[in-house]
Design a protein that fits this description.
Layout (H helix, E strand, L loop, with lengths): L5 E5 L4 H15 L4 E6 L1 H6 L1 H9 L4 E5 L25 H9 L2 H8 L8 E5 L4 H8 L4 E4 L4 H13 L11 E2 L8 E2 L14 H17 L4 E4 L7 H10 L4 E3 L10 H5 L9 H9 L6 E5 L8 H14 L3 E5 L5 H11 L1 H5 L3 E5 L4 H5 L4 E6 L3 H10 L3 E3 L6 H12 L2 E3 L11 H4 L5 H11 L4 H20 L5 H22 L1
Parallel strand pairs: 1-2, 1-4, 2-3, 4-5, 5-8, 8-9, 10-11, 10-13, 11-12, 13-14, 14-15
Antiparallel strand pairs: 6-7
The chain binds uridine-5'-diphosphate (UDP).
Uridine-5'-diphosphate binds next to helix 1, helix 15 and helix 16.
């Protein structure tokens, strides 16, 4: 069908961006479009198992490895992903180093066969717009966020409503189909950057990205029409229709191996983990994971752990200590927590095979930080969610889960936790909050049952939408046709 097409996929090297783009590449390649993923050697290794299996299965995917100039930009050798940064104060260095991939990419561009028909780039890599312009191909962006977030961001940029309120004063997000209340201190960095030196440095990066984004040919979204229907409609109107919702991308992982190896090698033996889940009653386990970047301070981690313990439900708790790992381990050792919860609670230190875990029938709820990937993975798994947003678009995603879709219950986080400034925010959520909300969400009464039914409904929608006849499959075909038309016009002209 589309054998002369070739899409160049350029991800931001950060799990929450790279993981969905690898999934997306597979979905596109399944439509017989050749895809080349531009990636660095360490990431090619990290995502290699999944990518190599996709290639071996016959999908037309190629990997273009470019050296990442970590050392030249003051980053440790081998630091090629945002979650490898020793400190988020180095974020700007990471963005600057990423921009240096432009020249090596342009050096090999002419050798790419067939000639690339478009670039699908993470929007945070604004330099890729220059490459697309130079070779006169469409620059399509992906940023891993929902249409709710896209629309809210656009409306805030235009109305500047957030500039008229105090930090903690609730206000209604302008121009949305529903009346959704937030505070300024819950908004993403573009509107609420924080006061650190990092925030000041990142301000110019963010503004540059925003300006470039407005010139994109179109936008790919990891969402589906049945999930946030009216938000998608409104956003499409704003973008003259060039918005293609083709998710949920995680659904591209059909077998357990792909689910288990997605994103990184799991820090727990998947078989042991699944065996333990097999031993638990259906819908009884809380899976608690706050994404790839969140590092809870030790006092905040303790509140989460003790809240789960007090709830008396079985749980899996993913521990990402980062530079605070030692302090967390010290507490775990001294407090006797692991001993007390033995058999009922499993700790995963490092990387959890999230999509695999979520697919297990024993999982009853997902305690999530509401990164958009996790949120949509939660919808796709058909489990209600305890929402605990931390930063970026996560408070918006919480509103999607709690108010738009109605399968989430908020744990009560009040303000964004700026990356690298977690200590200043203190304890946002107490153990009694975790315990109380766990009981609400696992409730066997009518309310809990309705929430579970709703979650199952969206699980079914998420499954069907990427199948033949589903809206996301249809949108993917429309996207490919659009690029094909554009390419043919270019050839004729
Ligand atoms: N993830 C995972 N195991 C972990 C942590 C994260 O598989 O231990 C995956 C998760 O399934 C999701 C991605 O990493 O696909 C995280 O993206 P998200 O947007 O949820 O949050 P971020 O990490 O960007 O804050």
């Amino acid at each position: 069908m589309a054998s002369n097409l070739h899409f160049l996929v350029i991800p931001l090297m950060c799990p929450g961006h790279l993981i969905p783009m690898v999934d997306m590449a597979k979905l596109i390649a399944q439509q017989t479009v050749a895809v080349t993923i531009v990636i660095t050697p360490r990431n090619a290794e990290r995502y290699g198992a999944v990518l190599n299996r996709a290639v071996a299965s016959g999908l037309p995917i190629r990997i273009l490895k470019l050296r990442f100039p970590a050392l030249e930009y003051g980053l440790p050798e081998g630091c090629e992903s945002v979650d490898d940064l020793p400190s988020f104060t180095l974020s700007k260095n990471f963005f600057d180093a990423s921009a240096k991939l432009q020249q090596p990419l342009e050096e090999v561009f002419g050798e790419l066969k067939p000639r690339p028909s478009c670039i699908i780039s993470d929007k945070h890599l604004a330099w890729t717009a220059d490459v697309a312009r130079k070779y006169q191909i469409p620059w399509v962006i992906f940023d891993g966020m929902s249409c709710f977030t896209q629309l809210s961001t656009h409306n805030l940029c235009v109305s500047k409503s957030h500039e008229k309120v105090a930090d903690s004063e609730p206000f209604i997000l302008p121009g949305l189909p529903d009346s959704i209340v937030v505070t300024k201190s819950q908004l993403p960095g573009l509107f609420n950057p924080g006061n650190s030196a990092r925030a000041k440095e990142m301000k110019s990066v963010r503004e540059h990205i925003r300006a470039a984004e407005l010139g994109a040919y179109g936008t790919i979204i990891n969402s589906f029409e049945e999930l946030e229907t009216r938000y998608i409609e409104e956003y499409k109107k704003l973008k003259q229709g060039r918005v293609w919702c083709i998710g949920p991308f995680s659904q591209s992982n059909k077998n357990d191996l792909d689910k288990a190896q997605r994103g990184s090698k799991a820090s727990i033996n998947e078989h042991d983990c699944m065996k333990w889940l097999d031993s638990q009653p259906p819908g009884s386990v809380i899976y608690a994971c706050l994404g790839s970047l969140t590092r809870l301070t030790p006092p905040q981690f303790i509140e989460l752990a003790l809240g789960l313990e007090e709830s008396r439900f079985p749980f899996i708790l993913v521990v990402k200590g980062g530079s605070r790992a030692e302090e967390i381990e010290k507490w775990l050792g001294e407090d006797g927590f692991e001993e007390r919860v033995k058999g009922r609670g499993v700790l995963v230190r490092g990387w959890a095979p999230q999509v695999l875990v979520l697919s297990h029938p024993a999982i009853g709820t997902f305690l999530t930080h509401c990164g958009w990937n996790s949120t949509i993975e939660g919808f796709s798994a058909g489990v209600p969610m305890i929402t605990w947003p931390q930063f970026a678009d996560q408070f918006f995603n919480e509103r999607v889960a709690v108010e738009v879709v109605g399968t989430g219950v908020a744990v009560g986080a009040k303000t964004v936790m700026h990356l690298g400034e977690e200590d200043e925010a203190g304890i946002q959520v107490k153990r009694e909050d975790v315990c109380r909300v766990a009981k609400i969400i696992m409730d066997e009464g009518r309310e809990g049952e309705e929430r579970r039914q709703k979650a199952k409904y969206f699980q079914e929608m998420a499954r069907k939408t990427i199948e033949e006849g589903g809206s996301s499959r249809h949108n993917l075909k429309l996207f490919i046709e659009d690029i094909m038309l554009h390419t043919n016009k270019g050839l004729a002209g």
